[in-house]
Amino acid sequence: MNTYGIARWARCAVVAASAALALGAQAQVIDFSGTRGAGVNQTDVLLENLRLLVPVPNPQQPGTTTTVESNYNILFRFDPATLHLVPVGLQQTGGSGSVQCATAQVTVFDALRGANQPLANASVTLGTRSTTTNAQGVASFAGLAQGFFTVTTTAPNYSPANQTVLLNCSAPNQVAVALSPASGSAGGLAAGQFRTILTWGENPRDLDSHLTGPAASANSRWHVYFGAKTSGDMCALDVDDISSYGPETVTCPPTASAATALRPGVYRYSVHHYAGSGNLGTSNANVRLELSNGQAYTFTPPAAPYTGSNNVWTVYELTVLADGSVGVAPVNSVMANVSSSSVARELPIAEGPGLGQAEGPSVFRNLVK
């Protein structure tokens, strides 16, 4: 997620929110009947298509009023101290005075085959707009407001997916979505498996998936990445992308070995900015963790002082207990200047103050393609 874009959006929203609140003395109506909500990250929720109906004098019939409708998206942040959702941004998306200058192209891929298999005739909903993808897997939208929107994607024989995007008007917005097959025979998740799917924007051109986990021998860990796609016998990199958008997909146990039981221990997933301009904070990166029971977790880069290439975002830890039960903890830790062949494997670094631990820096040293 573009952290700096979020800040600009929130500042602009203060003006819009103040104007909306100023109308409180009038007999306006706030209509929630067409709204929908979606999680943006671990702390924020987006409420879309709130309708504000305001009575104004009717110039055609003096002495009477007519109704002017405006539409808004509102971003809320959860406050654990008060257990309240606190509004942090309000963006007008339609109606009188709205600016609709953004365009978007949403490309839909098969998560296991990537750019080799774009999905035609997938249904894509962006905000309140819906369309289907063409033969190249692209759904095009125009005349959108800038700000946050939820993208919902469905396709026959694939599991649906939701993710949130931040649109702006300065350039066409390129969004990538990757869907998992729904059928086990086509690569869908079987009982006990989990899958991680990374997508991002045009820049940086190359983000890499890294997953470490417990090895069969005590006090050692394996490392699955572009240079060791099947390392460690527990997980495998299904697809590696080096030219923007993704997807990069890791499945555990591997797609071809679904009958293998997950080894108890900690599985840690990270994203490395290997090459290309921009940084993780401006990449529109989206990580979706899918479990075989249908549960899905979505992660976006946290606010951090990103420096560019060689930044590492440790996203989550997944812990498998001896009875096979699974727990997921967000880490959202960012390390800078981790040079990217020999791969040093190490045990988890010292436990931090949060729910999970950052990956050890030696995992990312001296990696070359």
Summarize the model shown.
The protein is mainly β and 369 residues long. The chain has one helix spanning 3-22; strands spanning 29-31, 36-39, 44-57, 65-79, 84-95, 102-110, 114-118, 123-126, 129-132, 138-144, 147-154, 161-167, 173-179, 194-199, 206-214, 221-224, 236-239, 248-252, 265-275, 286-291, 296-299, 312-320, 326-335.
Low-confidence sequence ranges? 1-19, 21-25, 340-353
Largest beta-sheet details: 5 strands, antiparallel
Quote the distance from N terminus to C terminus.
27 Å
Rg is 22 Å
State the helical fraction: under 10%
Q: Count the strands?
A: 23
Structural class: mainly beta
Describe the structure.
The chain is mainly β and 369 residues long. The protein has one helix spanning 3-22; strands at 29-31, 36-39, 44-57, 65-79, 84-95, 102-110, 114-118, 123-126, 129-132, 138-144, 147-154, 161-167, 173-179, 194-199, 206-214, 221-224, 236-239, 248-252, 265-275, 286-291, 296-299, 312-320, 326-335. Strands 1, 2, 3, 4 and 5 form a five-stranded antiparallel sheet that branches. Strands 17-18-14-20-21 form a five-stranded antiparallel sheet, with no helix packed on it.
Chart the SSEs and their pairings.
Elements lengths: L2 H20 L6 E3 L4 E4 L4 E14 L7 E15 L4 E12 L6 E9 L3 E5 L4 E4 L2 E4 L5 E7 L2 E8 L6 E7 L5 E7 L14 E6 L6 E9 L6 E4 L11 E4 L8 E5 L12 E11 L10 E6 L4 E4 L12 E9 L5 E10 L34
Parallel strand pairs: 6-13
Antiparallel strand pairs: 1-3, 2-3, 3-4, 4-5, 6-7, 6-10, 8-9, 8-11, 11-12, 14-18, 14-20, 15-16, 15-19, 17-18, 19-22, 20-21, 22-23
